[in-house]
Amino acid sequence: MVAKIDSLKNIPVFSSLSEKHLEELSEIMLEKTYRKNQVIFDQGDPGDSLIIIKKGLVKISLVDSNNHEFIIKTFSINDFFGEMALLDGGPRSATATAVEDTQALIIFRDNFVGLIQKNPSVALGMLTELSNRLRTTTENISNLTFFDAYGKVARCLLDLADKIGKKEETGLAMHLTLSRQELANMSGLSRETFARILKEFQVRGCLKVQGKKILILNEKIMRREIVI
User: Fold this and answer.
1) Residue 101: CB partners within 8 Å, gap ≥ 6?
2) pLDDT per residue over 189-218, tens digit each?
3) How far apart are alpha carbons 162 and 100 in whole angstroms?
4) How far apart are CA 181 and CA 196, in angstroms?
5) With contact defined as beta carbons under 8 Å apart, do 51 and 80 qualify?
6) How far is CA 128 from the centre of its chain?
7) C-beta separation of 140 from 185 below 8 A
8) At residue 107, what are phi and psi to the nearest 5 degrees?
């Protein structure tokens, strides 16, 4: 239980709860492990739970009529997702898949409703987080609509770096479990275009690619690419 409480304290929407409420919440949470590439839920599935990531990486995606995947967002340690279905009980609006072996905490809707009835501040925190995510979604749409290909790749890599990047002596390093195709899907580009721009960024000295590791050497230049 202590480990669950510690995890909850790192989640902004729950961090303001009292120790008592954190204990109550930890008691109603289910812990589950998902294997790499395992689907956590599919688009259209009944929405009955919120999922918190203790360890791992999860992608949220949509597939069009031509079976092309568009990755909306990725979530890593201390992130949560599934909150929309948790609040309204509607079907899942996208598919969630474990990109790597992932440990998660699950809160079911009925139990969560009971919690917010006892502590309305949790609902307020959730609404704040939903507002932030709506703003991010709007920015992502702007990215796909207005940015050129270089800006899309830069935005994709910098967003991932903010989540999973680790400072090294020469730059910001990411050890990715996402494939090149998945990175291209996140950018809204073909795999060939993504690979070409990645190579050009290397030639310009912005980053270095070593297998699954991407090292951002000049974050400032990368950020210039995403200015509209």
Assistant:
1) 33, 34, 35, 36, 55, 56
2) 889 999 999 999 999 899 999 888 999 999
3) 18
4) 13
5) yes
6) 17
7) no
8) -115, 125
Q: Whole-prediction pTM value?
A: 0.70
Q: How far is residue 122's CA from residue 126's CA, in Å, rounded to a whole number?
A: 6
CB atoms near residue 225 (< 10 Å): 20
Strands of the sheet containing 69-75, edge to edge, are: 39-41, 95-98, 58-63, 69-75
Calpha distance 90→27 (Å, rounded): 25
For residue 58, give the DSSP letter: E
What is the DSSP-derived secondary structure letter of residue 172?
E
SS3 226: coil
Backbone φ and ψ for 202, nearest 5 degrees, come out as: -65, -45
Of 137, 143, 152, nearest to 197 by C-alpha is: 152
Stretch (H or E) spanning 98: strand 95-98
For residue range 52-75, list pLDDT tens digits in order: 999 999 999 988 777 888 888 899
| Token couple for 134 | 């709506």
Enter the tokens of residue 133.
């995510």
Q: What does the DSSP assignment read for 76-134?
A: -TT-EE-HHHHHH--B-SSEEEESS-EEEEEEEHHHHHHHHHH-HHHHHHHHHHHHHHH
